[in-house]
Amino acid sequence: MSLLSTHGLCAHYGDFQALFGVDVYIERGETVAVIGANGAGKSTLLRAMIGLLPSAPAMVRLDGEPVGNLPAHDLVRRGVALVPEGRRLFRSLSVEENLRLGGDFLAPGAWTLPRVYELFPRLAERRDSPATLLSGGEQQMVAIGRALLSNPRVLLCDELSLGLAPIIVREIYARLATVAASGTTLVIVEQDISRALESADRFYCMQKGRVSLAGACGTVTVDRAALTQAYFGL
Prior knowledge:
Number of helices: 9
Oligomer: single chain
């Protein structure tokens, strides 16, 4: 039984249909990359998985149980957390206050505030600073730490590298490897194909709201033509 899965998932923004019958399976302890061009449906997939976009109950399953109709806060309590695109920090709060919001769900587990500071030492140095004074990379670290403090079983990461310098992206992905080694299942949405495939066990490529290609990351280098076709539709 997969930890998190979608079954014929369809999603809409009003009258606009963004996902068309998407089947995705996330197994315990693995890292899965979701790649695709802008507008392919990657972020919409994560929003549906976390309950920000409602669907029919059986279209999203957690531990085999239908959860497609549940709101996001219920799914967080059941062990699913999202690092949203754009970080979405509370500008009026300090670093530590933003982090502690993740701990409000009081899920038992290994991730504590001291452990998050150990993972991201620069946040410990900036703990009393307003979120508005942080660099983009530091804000991303806060967003990841906030999600980890809910002690998720599966962490959904949306466009972590967006707008960040390459050296900061490398640092963040190195920390994600530590998170994965702790047993947390990861789903990483990423436009940087090389970065995503280097970091994941398996991948799904999306195009126009559908899965256009899927496989083990080690097999992708063998057939770049297939990946280009799946990514761009060329």
